[in-house]
Amino acid sequence: DAGVTQSPTHLIKTRGQHVTLRCSPISGHKSVSWYQQVLGQGPQFIFQYYEKEERGRGNFPDRFSARQFPNYSSELNVNALLLGDSALYLCASNPPSWYQETQYFGPGTRLLVL
Amino acid sequence: QKEVEQDPGPLSVPEGAIVSLNCTYSNSAFQYFMWYRQYSRKGPELLMYTYSSGNKEDGRFTAQVDKSSKYISLFIRDSQPSDSATYLCAMTSDTGNQFYFGTGTSLTVIP
Question: Fewer C-beta within 10 Å: chain B N or C terminus?
Fold first, then answer.
């Protein structure tokens, strides 16, 4: 049974470019959350999606957007990249009964903006 | 004031020691509390998940929640070198729409 998968694993971009990160949740999970983890800090919540609808949004600029597809996979898009966007981007798969078992994280995508 | 405060350490202990990791929080709406372990350059791995106040034990790990003090702890007994990692506390309210993380505590267990 596959866990949470994310692609790509590493990415290097330059300032001003656009990036798309992808996530596939655990089979049977219909909700995903995206987090940004800057080196030395804890993950910061960006978005939560459930059944293709946005359920929550953290304090991130409009350059960050996301969507969820009918198969429950998700994309995180970041426009006009800044140096400060360099981070580990984590996707979490949220189980149906999240109050009985909590979210599970993927390995992350490490983004470096030069 | 941050929603969740966690001492970043670093914490260094000898093998076999008891480790105590702690977080404080300010939002009384938080009901679900988690501890994750994160190895360098990897995604967080769930260790413990508790609801409301009380204790939960799983092998060498014990999680404690004191909602009256807004304080949670993770104890690691008989610590092993393989426990060397960053430990993150996290919490959320009844809606579960947004999870809040501490900054993480870096732990090194010396053989």
Answer: N
